[in-house]
């Protein structure tokens, strides 16, 4: 209806009257068309991303069942593909829907050289984290599910993302570490290669105790533990040192992994103490002997004489 009205007015020679409204009408029509194109582009991007993500998850899951060691790389690769698809989809939708954006952005970057430099420096850290994440996922110094020791914390690798890695500590805290940190930080990986661990137990016995019996008890307790992992020459008890208070013994046994080794050590300390008590093996503890000066001894003796009643004084009779 509005369009017909404007055409009739134009035929009647009222072009000046139509100039502003017609321009606004054309601008609104173009803007609506561009907005619809952009929304359709985003919708297509989301649909394609969802389908690709579902397909990759199923495919990589089948591959991970055959090769569990590559699970970390598969997860990271899937996220990298999805992130690239989203970035490309949004970029293409934007530049197709709003073609002037590319020209304006180019002009802005050319004229704002300092701002471009600042943005590049700011993005350097993000790019470093992404590249480090790719290196971690391919080289695999640790994998999802590995037990590691990072900055005085025992952790499990919970997830490896594009920008950071999530570590779960033994007390259920989450440590979020930028991926670039792992390029310069040393970590201990308890799961890579052979996850089994030796479990050392250090105990002292008194010099008066039966040393051979104490060592046999320690070996027998370790052998009976349900988490003991058989190995040649283990469990083994040896004399380590002659200390001030007693003889230091070391029991060496083995567990399947680090978490099991930690709990196994706690159990062995308890059971060895119970067996030592039952067999008369003494665990020494610090003793202190005080040697008094002669003057202090004399003063204490006089004080005791004053406090104690005289043997010659009848009971109930006070001294005059």
Notable features of this structure?
alpha+beta, 320 residues, SH3 type barrels, elongated, 8 helices, 3 domains, 8 strands, three-stranded antiparallel sheet, Alpha-Beta Plaits
Note down, in words, how this protein is organized:
This protein has 320 residues and is of the alpha+beta class. The protein has 3 domains: 2-111; 147-189, Roll (SH3 type barrels), CATH 2.30.30; 197-278, Alpha-Beta Plaits, CATH 3.30.70.100. The protein is built from 8 helices and 8 strands. It has helices at 2-11, 15-66, 71-97, 99-111, 113-139, 211-224, 258-278, 294-307; strands spanning 147-150, 153-160, 164-169, 174-178, 188-189, 197-205, 236-242, 247-255. The strands form 2 sheets. The protein has a 5-stranded antiparallel sheet. A hairpin with a 3-residue loop joins strand 2 and strand 3 (164-169). Helix 2 (15-66) packs antiparallel against helix 3 (71-97), helix 3 (71-97) crosses helix 4 and helix 3 packs antiparallel against helix 5 (113-139). The radius of gyration is 40 Å and the shape is elongated. The model has no long low-confidence stretch (mean pLDDT 79).
């Amino acid at each position: 209806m509005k369009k017909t009205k404007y055409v009739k007015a134009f035929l009647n020679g009222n072009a000046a009257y139509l100039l502003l409204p017609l321009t606004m009408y054309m601008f609104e029509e173009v803007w609506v068309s561009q907005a619809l194109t952009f929304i359709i582009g985003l919708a297509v991007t989301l649909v394609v991303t969802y389908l690709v993500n579902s397909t990759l998850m199923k495919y990589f899951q089948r591959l991970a069942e055959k090769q569990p060691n590559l699970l970390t790389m598969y997860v990271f690769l899937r996220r990298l593909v999805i992130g690239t698809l989203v970035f490309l989809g949004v970029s293409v939708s934007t530049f197709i829907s709003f073609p002037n954006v590319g020209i304006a952005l180019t002009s802005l970057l050319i004229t704002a050289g300092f701002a471009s430099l600042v943005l590049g420096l700011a993005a350097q850290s993000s790019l470093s984290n992404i590249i480090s994440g790719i290196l971690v996922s391919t080289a695999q110094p640790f994998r999802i599910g590995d037990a590691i020791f990072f900055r005085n914390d025992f952790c499990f690798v919970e997830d490896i993302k594009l920008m950071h890695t999530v570590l779960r500590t033994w007390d259920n805290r989450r440590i979020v570490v930028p991926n670039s940190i792992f390029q310069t930080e040393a970590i201990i990986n308890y799961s890579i290669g052979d996850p089994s661990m030796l479990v050392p137990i250090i105990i002292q016995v008194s010099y008066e105790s039966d040393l051979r019996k104490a060592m046999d008890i320690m070996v027998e307790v370790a052998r009976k533990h349900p988490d003991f992992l058989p190995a040649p020459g283990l469990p083994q008890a040896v004399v380590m040192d002659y200390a001030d208070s007693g003889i230091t013994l070391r029991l060496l046994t083995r567990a399947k992994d680090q978490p099991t080794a930690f709990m196994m050590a706690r159990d062995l300390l308890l059971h060895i103490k119970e067996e030592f008590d039952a067999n008369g093996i003494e665990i020494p503890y610090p003793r202190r002997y005080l040697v008094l000066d002669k003057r202090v001894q004399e003063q204490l003796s006089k004080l005791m004489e004053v406090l104690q009643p005289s043997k010659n004084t009848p009971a109930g009779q006070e001294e005059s």
